[in-house]
Amino acid sequence: MSQTVILSDPIFDTHTWLGHVEQAERLVAIRNAIASSGLNRDLHHYEVHPALESDLQAVHTPRLLAQVRRLASYGGGQFDSDTYVTPDSWEAATLAAGAAVGAVDAVAGGEVRNAFALVRPPGHHATPSRAMGFCLINNIAVAARYAVRRLGVARVAIVDYDVHHGNGTQDIFYDDPHVLFCSTHASPFYPGSGSITEMGDHAAAPGTTLNVPLPFGTGDRGYRRAFEQVIVPAIRAFRPELIMVSAGFDAHWSDPLGPMVLSVTGFARLNQIILDLADELCGGRVVMSLEGGYNLDALAACVVASLRQLIGRSPGQDAIGQVEAPEPDAEVNRVIDILQDRHPLLR
Predict the structure, then answer these.
(1) Is the pTM of this model over 0.90?
(2) Ordered mean pLDDT values, 10 residues apiece, the chain (347 residues)
(3) How far, in Å, CA of 27 to CA of 10, rounded?
(4) Which residues carry out catalysis?
(5) First-last CA distance in the chain
(6) Which part of the chain is the Histone deacetylase domain (predicted)?
(7) What angle do CA 274, 276, 277 make, to 5 degrees?
(8) N or C terminus of the chain with fewer C-beta within 10 Å?
């Protein structure tokens, strides 16, 4: 069995708005870094197909999908000050969701152990009925629901370590007992959701949402502690058959949008925790889907390190380095203590 697949497409570059931080150059930087790293010979590139309308409607309202399609057909525009549409955005967005679905197909079908959907636009802020936060269609949610409904995967765990809370993914699965959504994110920060008290629908899916809101300035040490003491035991209790990762790298210390201080090495430690957990629980089945990350050098370095780990190598040297600054340990410990006391999967 081949090891690692990546799914991407040049069409994603056509979704770009002059001066916007979520731009085509993000994937250009990633592709260039992969080529320079020599990893291409160890990666399998799968063709990407658009997500089916039925799979999109399993997550989003027909009205939202019609809005995105119509705005693209009119030549583009904006849903809000953050979220734009170009003439090619409908094609790019449905192809991005399709790439995530294709990654699930490859991994759940046993063709490969893991896969990375290198996509744009990102998805985790898109709710069932609203495009927001740079996101038009929720790629990872479309793929996770596809895994459950179409492939019969009983339980999927989604880990979102983007610096922003994945409010759209949470909303989509809040009452779904088949999907555990775990998020570490800066708090208080955009989009303002993701409190400790949001733990899933009490009647339908208690405990299937796990939010770890972290204080500004949290870095490698605090994130690792949150993963080891909260995320890992919760996923173990849930026993997923597939682990998916909303891989946003905007918690890196150099990111222009984020207030956190993770390093490339710090992200690699989080990835290794996830990969080890997948080996333990679900035959190593991991699907990653790109979300944020807006310093091009850091984004590319994080993706290359992640791919090295997916193919079974060390993440390599962190050429960008770390920030030497005190972390808010007491505040991080307080969040962990509250979750360990109150969350259904941790009691």
Answers:
(1) yes
(2) 87 97 98 97 96 98 98 97 98 98 96 96 98 98 98 98 98 98 98 98 97 98 98 98 98 98 98 98 98 98 98 96 94 98 96
(3) 9
(4) 125
(5) 39
(6) 20-309
(7) 65
(8) N
